[in-house]
Design a protein that fits this description.
alpha/beta, binds guanosine-5'-diphosphate, six-stranded mixed sheet, 5 helices, GTPase Der, Rossmann fold, single chain, globular, binds magnesium ion, 6 strands
Length: 166
Amino acid sequence: MNPVIALVGRPNVGKSTLFNRLTRSRDALVADFPGLTRDRKYGNGQLGGKEYTVIDTGGISGGISGDEQGIDAAMAEQSLLAIDEADIVLFLVDARSGLIPADEAIANHLRVNQKKTWLVVNKTDGLEEHSAMAEFWTLGLGDPHPIAASHGRNVTTLIDEVLAPF
Ligand code: GDP
Ligand code: MG
């Protein structure tokens, strides 16, 4: 079995963009508005001779506490299922918008989850990495890892590191 990497985070942080890069497919819809990908989407990829499976999710906008309504609830459910199926969770946040309460709500769930979780700060293109990372330390999920999914910045390095134990 390939290691399974779940991409989670609130809408619009760049999960589908990263999914496309990791699977080199156009299967995941990438859009300028939040919440387009409502179901889980699976793709396979390969890096440094290692194969993996990636799960793209619709994102969790209102948190993951179980009181979400309608489509948000469905998306939160998809994310929880993806986390269950994964060996590795990449929790994406957005360096452009900075830390918002929805990120903290998701982090609260991930901190008590047993899955190996990596905090990934996307959209660092054009930003100074060190200062862009600073506020994300407060999430309590360890080192923030800067990437730019749409440019490929640090993506290969991150995935190499993530897959090292497998
Ligand atoms: P999702 O809702 O989390 O799946 O986010 P998407 O992958 O649909 O991306 C949301 C928006 O962010 C799109 O307009 C992307 O082009 C943009 N985006 C994604 N990655 C990056 C990045 O690394 N840098 C910048 N500047 N924009 C990005
Ligand atoms: Mg998406």
